Amino acid sequence: MRRPALFAFLLIQYYHTSGQFFPSPGYPQNEFRDPLAIPIRLAANFGELRANHYHMGLDIRTDHRENLPVFAAADGYVCRIKIEPFGFGQAIYIRHTNGYISLYAHLNAFYPALASYVKRKQYELERWDVSLDLPPGLLTVKKGDLIAYSGNMGGSQGPHLHFEIRSAATPGSPETNLNPMLFGLPVADNVPPVFRGLSVYDRNKSFYEQTPAFVPVKKTAAGYEIALPILILKSADPGFGISGFDAQTGSNNPNGIFQGVIYDNEEAVSGFQMDRISYDETRGINAHIDYPTQQRGGPAYQLLFRMPGYMHSIYKETKPGGPINLQDGKIHGIRIELKDAYGNESNLNFKVRFQPEPEPGPVYAGKVFYPGMLDGFEASNAAFYLGPACLYDSLHLVYLETASDAKNTVSSVHRFGNTEVPLGDTMTVRIRLSKSEIQKQHVLMQWSDGEDFEVKKPQWLGDWATCSFRSFGNFQLVLDTLAPVIRVPGIVENANLRRSSRIAVIVQDNYKKVKNFRATLDGKWLLFSNDKARAFLYHFDEHCRPGRHELKIYAEDEAGNGSSALLHFSR
């Protein structure tokens, strides 16, 4: 809204003159205002690379402060509220008269009318973590109205406002996240993207069964280049990736790259653009980056070609598969062009030539699996089934069964696949129980990789347990008969809490998964929040009148083990 006229003109001109490979999306300009009352400085932009997902909006800095006023970006009505311990924390969704939805997340508090409505619903549902759909006309807002106060709740690592713009034709229709930087928000940016490195792959081989080449990149007065005059490649069908980042004027924060296109002798071959991504597609980031290299501690190389199993992708290709054909043996001039959302541009230029070099074909153990196919592996005590969307490229998967004498383990340990290979969808895992007399109602299936682990309650068919997981690794069945431990630190029985502002309850579980928590005050459900799952907190309010009270607490883990605590206090 406050962008200088020349800045908006340059943005429009960029889309009209930047070539036809990625045409202008044509989003309305200047209909959305800055959701804060301070200049926009970004901690993260749309499409930035995160663990197992793209960043789906803008993280706007709040100068390390909380409780800054947050304003409606355009006219509309509050259509949804979401409260959860991780993720968005507390979030507001506004459906606008222009057909878009804006989202504001990690909020500390809602504006009074909304806060009152949400609290009433929480007590009706007897849940703190809720997802509420609101009807049109119930809570309408105008552009610039106060709707909330910024915070640090949910999966936030520091105070900021997470802001999204989504498209959804009608209530209930699928929503797609759009890049807010393309809507004319007042973000000053004249800094071009930065190249850090180049990676090279053989597209005639499985992406996960090769060792890529990594080529250093240097900046010169003419742009970016590599040290070699000609890069000699053993493959006539190479693929390239780049590591790098974008930045904003006045900030050294490394942000995500909006657009990358690769040219062969100045003909566009393929590229990616961070324009529109849905949450159903966000895990596809693991097919956009060199996942194995990143898992080994290397940088995130972003691929300039689409992997075979990346169906709902951010890529565009001039030909199916986006090939660069070097079969002619001639020198090819390769140019990689990076742009940000405002047209600031950087280029990496280098030359390549194919020179065949005979080498023995590798031999891999295990069964080969292909993207797009429903397939499985079955052993005497375990089975694994992969759906059509599980793999991004073909590869051999190895299975290994080992006995376990660990306490409470009630099956062998079954290792399947390589944790340096990502899964695009859940795979089904079945494991046979080692002893039929085990209490199945307290058995969990555990995935682990090093010190990381996750447990789930399985479905049973005879002695076979079934669960779904989104990672390869080690799988086993464990018996959990230990109930969670409930603590109320700092408060003793019959305490006088007249000067206290809150009650904190800590619940600890041996498998770190508390499934249910319930508290009642004098027999009535009481609202405890659970931000970041650190503690359950009740802030004294109208639901706790002066006098003597009885607080009952119940906690249950994933295996169904429950524990209770009883506390009397006065106010």
How do the strands and helices of this protein lay out in sequence?
Layout: H1 5-17, E1 42-44, E2 49-50, E3 53-54, E4 58-61, E5 69-71, E6 76-83, E7 90-96, E8 100-105, E9 109-110, H2 112-125, E10 131-133, E11 140-141, E12 146-149, E13 160-167, E14 176-178, E15 194-202, E16 213-216, E17 218-220, E18 223-225, E19 231-233, E20 238-245, E21 259-264, E22 267-273, E23 276-277, H3 285-288, H4 291-295, E24 302-303, E25 315-317, E26 332-339, E27 345-354, E28 367-369, E29 375-378, E30 382-386, E31 395-397, E32 399-402, E33 413-416, E34 427-432, E35 443-449, E36 452-456, E37 459-461, E38 464-469, E39 473-479, E40 485-487, E41 495-496, E42 502-508, E43 514-521, E44 524-525, E45 536-539, E46 548-557, E47 562-570
What does this protein structure show overall?
The protein has 571 residues and is mostly beta strands. The protein folds into four domains: 5-183, Glucose Permease (Domain IIA) (Distorted Sandwich), CATH 2.70.70; 194-354, Coagulation Factor XIII, Chain A, domain 1; 367-479, Chondroitinase Ac, Chain A, domain 3 (Sandwich), CATH 2.60.220; 485-570, Immunoglobulins (Immunoglobulin-like, Sandwich), CATH 2.60.40.10. The protein is 6% helix and 40% strand. It contains four helices and 47 strands. The strands form ten sheets. Strands 1, 4, 6, 7, 8, 10, 11, 13, 14 and 23 form a ten-stranded antiparallel sheet that branches. Strands 17, 18, 19, 21, 22, 25, 26 and 27 form an eight-stranded mixed sheet that branches. β37 and β38 form a beta hairpin.
Short description:
The chain has 4 helices and 47 strands.
